[in-house]
Structures are given as C-alpha cells and as structure tokens.
Amino acid sequence: NSRGTASLLKDSISFTDVAASGLFEGHDLLRRGFTSVKNELLPSHPLELTEKNFQLNQDKTNFATLRNIQGIHAPLKLQMEFRAVKQVQRLPFLHSSNMAMDILRGNDECIGFEDILNDPSQSEVMGEPHMMMEHKLGLL
User: Fold this and answer.
1) Is the pLDDT of residue 85 over 80?
2) Which domain of life is it from (predicted)?
3) pTM of the predicted model, to two decimals?
4) Domains of the chain: which residue ranges?
C-alpha cells in the first residue's frame, strides 16, 4: 500500500464532525430563532443587493475621496473613530440611536425613513432582558 497511514487518517471522519452537522440535529429556537425561508432566498431584483450595501459602498467612496484629497492619514483616523464608536453599545435589550455614528457620517442633520417610521417605543420586538444578556455573555 503506497498511500500510507497519513492518507487513511485523512479519509476517516470523526464522530464529533458527524454529530455536530448530522441529519437529525435539533434546531435550537432559543439561540437561533425561528428558521426563515426569506433569509435563504436570492435577491429578487438586481438593485436589492446594491441597496443592502449602500452605506458600505458610500463609506468606501468617501474614504477613497478623502485619501486622494488629504492623504492616507485622514481615512485611517476616521476608520479608527468608527471602530471606537461601534464598540460602545447599550445593553442588548435597549434601543440605541447610534448618534455618534450619525455625527461621524454626517447624517445627524438629515431626516430619513428610519427617523420617522422606526420608533422603538412602537416596536413589536422586545425580548426578555435576562435571557438576552445571558445569550450575549454566552451563558445560554
């Protein structure tokens, strides 16, 4: 046998691999929520993907323009400020307006769709605070 023992070990499948992604694996509703076919569908219109990534594309364009005008230090400084602002968060069951991110992007003076129709007090999605904190901390 010219294949040797290394190839025999590579061909074998461990029990943990089969158990973790087995055919009869149960779906954990508390951690993953309900399964939705909508999330697995392809975009129905060619512009849908562009609209989903609008803010990312706009940030890339702004960074490229800023780099061409002021040099590489300006977009790097702005990206560090974005990261610092993203790390500051409220508790997972409280709504956050992300005002600091809006100020950095220059959207603080603009009135958009989410400002009028995204009122958190009328939101139908409110989880149990203790369960949400345990999930965020990895205790569940």
Assistant:
1) yes
2) Eukaryota
3) 0.55
4) 37-111+129-137
